[in-house]
Amino acid sequence: MYCVYCNEDHQAAEKFSDEHIIPEALGGTKSFAIRTCETINNTIGNEVDKPFISMFPVNADRFFLNLASHRGLPALDLGGTTVIDGKEQEIQSTVKDGEKVLKLTKPVIETLKEPDRDLITISADPQQARQILLGKLEAVTKQGKAMTHQDGSPVTPESIERYIAEHSVAVPQPSILIKLQLSGLDAVRFFCKVALATGFCIAGESFGRSVVADKLRTIIRSENIEDLPMPGAFWPFYKNPEAFKFFSIPDTHVLAVLADEPHVLGISLFGGSYTALVPLHEVGTFEWPLTREGRVFRISLKDKWFKQWSYGDYLLARPWVPPSTP
Asked: Which residues in 64-200 belong to E strands, given as ranges?
């Protein structure tokens, strides 16, 4: 059986599985999928799909639309650094399943050595502080030494609990500096994967063995694509809202193979937030089955349904126009 990602014919014993052209974590559906060998399917999921899904703006869209993967609903990660008592500290701030977590990521332990004792100051999440203090108490006890609070009273497990309760400070809305790293190259790999899978979904093996498919596979597999010519125009390097006005439907993915030759795939994710234009056809390379017809695929993320049209029928239906518009 032929696998478009491998560009190989596998033996009958090779395991194949469904590969969501748009991943489940982005609202993809089994109605828009191809069959690929299981090994490469897992590789593509980990090395191509996952980096794109993990990009902050993409994951934020997933979060607000409650787009679950097989691992469950996404978490919104707002962690970064904050300043406490004039010192910069890392802070964890996540929201998942309606629960908010806000705490220091790493404890800060400062030790001031004096002639007869060590003064230890701990800045940490209460649970972390409790574990650190209990650990230190156990260690000094084994050494036959004493551990006291600043007022000279002995440290016990019970006094640690009281001390943490009395000295814990809640900061409900701290200022958090978030540093975002957006890899446009991860986006390019992902869009090329979507284009390769879409072309195969429409045209089958003839597309998979074409020159265009070879170019897309080269991009997907390359660890250094900066030196390779990009086969199209991709977000975040390029975005033309005018080109996608017919494919920008709120909370919707639209993939459209344009009817004119050479056929180009327009990808519009999340209502046009992330876009790409990828040629799927070079004149004379193979017989494209959609000449002068085109194809449009639409995935509605809130309604959880999938539909496809010919390009002409899509334009007549005008689904990008709100129902209340005359």
From this structure: 76-77, 80-84, 87-96, 99-104, 108-113, 118-123
